Amino acid sequence: MSQKILLVSRKGIMTSSLQSPLEADLPVIDISQFPQKIEGDHLQHHPEVVKLGKACEEWGIFRLVNHGVPQDLLQNVLSVSKDLMSMPMEVKDRVTTSDPPKSYMRKPGIPIPFETFCFLDIPNPDSILEMSRKIWPEEGNLKFCEAIGAFSSYLSDLAQRIIKLILVSLGLDAESFYHSDFEKCKALLRINGYSSHGKSNGEEALIAHADRGCLTILRNDEEEGLQVRSKEGKWINIKPSPHSLIVNLGICFNAWSNDRYMCAVHRVICKGWENRLSVPLFLSFADDAQIAAPDTLLNKDNPRRFKPFIFSELQSELRKEFEKL
After folding, report:
1. Is residue 2 part of a domain?
2. How far is Cα of residue 182 from the mean position of the Cα atoms in its chain?
3. 219: domain range?
């Protein structure tokens, strides 16, 4: 494989066909098997770490269980998110700004209408409070702020632990590489809504793509529709599981691992629902960060596969790719 700035060299990363999907479940990782503080590399032979490494290598996506996020909080997040999405359009438009990462956005012109609320600098509660006061000017909706604030805090802590465990699975010192390469990563929480508007089952609500950052932690509602593409190119239906979270690796971690770990190509299709909701947290590098596989992961059999690149360059190139669709 020649060196490239982008990982769009994987055939069809942003395209897809509508062949009949397979039924299978994702690898399941029990994070309660590990201590709260992940240090060094002494856990690399732990059975759950070995399983994690295989999941990242073969799938780039896995199901996280016993994650510590209270079940009532998971339900509250969906409840307040549905309340937010049900607000009149003119009210939601109050949140639209010139800065998309801190804004409400809607795309009515695509095949399936899509809208999203973006919260940058998570888990900073100020960004959540600022947005809620624009939607609910009188009181700012304390229930919404508490649920989204607590959820983003839990997910931010989980993201840090997961990154460290993945580093251990690569045989690396978790603390050292986390501080040198991942400590300055930023978190973005989004509340996404999809409306089928009478579209047929099997039509795409979200086109096939890979997330651009390091990893994504996803809380879905109970509606089906999420699919992931296997290493062999087959689409797999991901069944809803209200007690678990979905974690997938993005393009940047695929590059940082020198293509050892996959970035999960996924999409959402209509499955008989009128509206569908998801609440993902994205962990990404800073705009000016350089992404390059460390020398520790390189050898004569595994030379550097992709040129080092700046994260903002990746975002710019991906925007160009999407504009061509």
Report:
1. no
2. 16
3. 22-323
Tokens of 154: 């839990």
Which pLDDT tens digits describe the chain residue by residue (325 residues)? 444 444 443 333 444 444 556 667 899 999 999 988 888 888 989 999 999 999 999 999 999 999 999 999 999 999 999 999 998 988 888 888 666 666 788 776 555 678 889 888 787 788 788 888 888 887 668 899 999 999 999 999 999 999 999 999 999 999 999 999 999 999 999 999 988 876 778 888 888 899 999 999 999 878 888 999 998 889 999 988 888 999 999 999 999 999 999 999 999 998 888 889 999 999 999 989 999 999 999 999 999 998 999 998 887 776 555 444 3
Q: What is the pTM of this model?
A: 0.89
Residue 108's contacts (CB-CB under 8 Å, 6 or more residues apart) are none
> Cα dist. 167→24, 25, 27, 296, 309 in Å?
27, 24, 18, 12, 20
User: Which CATH number do you get for residue 311?
Assistant: 2.60.120.330
Say if 17 falls within a structural domain: no
